[in-house]
């Protein structure tokens, strides 16, 4: 199966402040804020929704195409992706700009101040033809360039290609009419609790309106698990217990990779969500969003241990 992952590619630049932001921000002077935090150092990680999802899919024995844009500084990230068997043909390089970057400073209370530079993500990608006539196709439309998201959804609908719509942090760039049109006809709408509430408010829809327009709705709830809805039927999906919780940051993207693997194997929705839950459990055991590693056997063993049945063979 051809799997296309559309979304962002970014460098996450993570800094730790050995103090407390509250000690240096004066409420009476917030209107003329001018502060500097001396950090302990900077760690750079590969990130972005498209990169994170594709990375975990590579651990699940898939080799998806990434559909995104990148800047002049993308070379080391590209080497990493290719090392893991990921296809970079549809990553468009934008000259004269940097790859998107998140600059995250965390204090000793785990408060965060983040600056995000969209960089190359501000430019639309070159979109691939979605149906080669020889292979079935699955598309994940994740938070990234709005033009890409909208056009991919339109192409999927017109070509009868199943797609997962994952608005994530892009919700603030859409009008209600725009995103309602983009979502229509999706195989799956996936978000967390907050994003779902924001989406419903933005579109002025009830949950039933969304359920009538997509085949399934998945709402992730962090360590509480996730909720699968197919029309009126709702099924709770428990979270899989990791060996230890180190960093939950990449769990959502890993869940999506497990879900996509299940969909590519043509599994039932519940099985796909179980696979997502297992993939997420590996991600939280490591710092960063592309630091975890596992083999297919380890994935299948954890799946069977937690859910009590084997991963079904693909259709």
From TrEMBL:
Name any one GO molecular function. kinase activity
Q: Which Pfam families does the entry link to? A: PfkB
Query: What name has this protein been given in UniProt?
Result: Adenosine kinase
Write down the SUPFAM superfamilies for this protein, in alphabetical order: Ribokinase-like (SSF53613)
UniProt-listed CDD domains: ribokinase_group_A
Superkingdom of origin organism: Bacteria
This protein's UniProt keywords = Kinase, Transferase
To which species is this protein native? Desulfosoma caldarium
Q: Where is the Carbohydrate kinase PfkB domain?
A: 41-291
Q: Which PROSITE patterns match?
A: PFKB_KINASES_2
| Upper classification of the organism | Bacteria, Pseudomonadati, Thermodesulfobacteriota, Syntrophobacteria, Syntrophobacterales
């Amino acid at each position: 199966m051809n799997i296309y992952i559309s979304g962002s590619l970014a460098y996450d630049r993570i800094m730790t402040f050995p103090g407390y932001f509250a000690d240096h921000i004066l409420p009476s002077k917030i209107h003329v804020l001018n502060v500097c935090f001396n950090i302990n150092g900077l760690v750079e990680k590969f990130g972005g929704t498209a990169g994170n999802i594709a990375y975990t899919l590579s651990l699940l024995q898939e080799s998806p195409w990434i559909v995104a844009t990148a800047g002049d500084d993308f070379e080391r990230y590209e080497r990493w992706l290719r090392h893991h068997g990921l296809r970079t043909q549809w990553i468009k390089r934008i000259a004269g700009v940097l790859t998107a970057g998140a600059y995250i400073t965390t204090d000793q209370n785990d408060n965060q101040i983040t600056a995000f530079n969209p960089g190359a993500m501000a430019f639309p990608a070159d979109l691939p033809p979605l149906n080669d006539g020889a292979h079935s196709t699955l598309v994940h439309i994740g938070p990234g360039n709005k033009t890409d998201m909208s056009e991919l959804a339109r192409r999927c609908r017109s070509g009868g290609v199943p797609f997962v719509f994952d608005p994530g942090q892009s919700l603030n760039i859409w009008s209600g009419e725009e995103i309602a049109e983009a979502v229509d006809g999706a195989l799956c709408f996936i978000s967390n609790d907050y994003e779902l509430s924001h989406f419903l408010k933005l579109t002025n829809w009830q949950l039933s309106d969304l359920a009538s327009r997509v085949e399934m709705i998945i709402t992730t709830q962090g360590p509480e698990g996730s909720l699968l809805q197919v029309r009126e039927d709702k099924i709770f999906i428990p979270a899989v217990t990791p060996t230890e919780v180190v960093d939950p940051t990449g769990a959502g993207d890993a869940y999506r990779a497990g879900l996509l693997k299940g969909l590519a194997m043509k599994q039932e929705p519940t099985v796909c969500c179980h696979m997502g839950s297992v993939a997420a459990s590996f991600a939280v055991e490591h710092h960063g969003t592309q630091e975890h590693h596992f083999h297919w056997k380890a994935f299948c063993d954890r799946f069977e241990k937690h859910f009590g049945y084997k991963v079904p063979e693909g259709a």
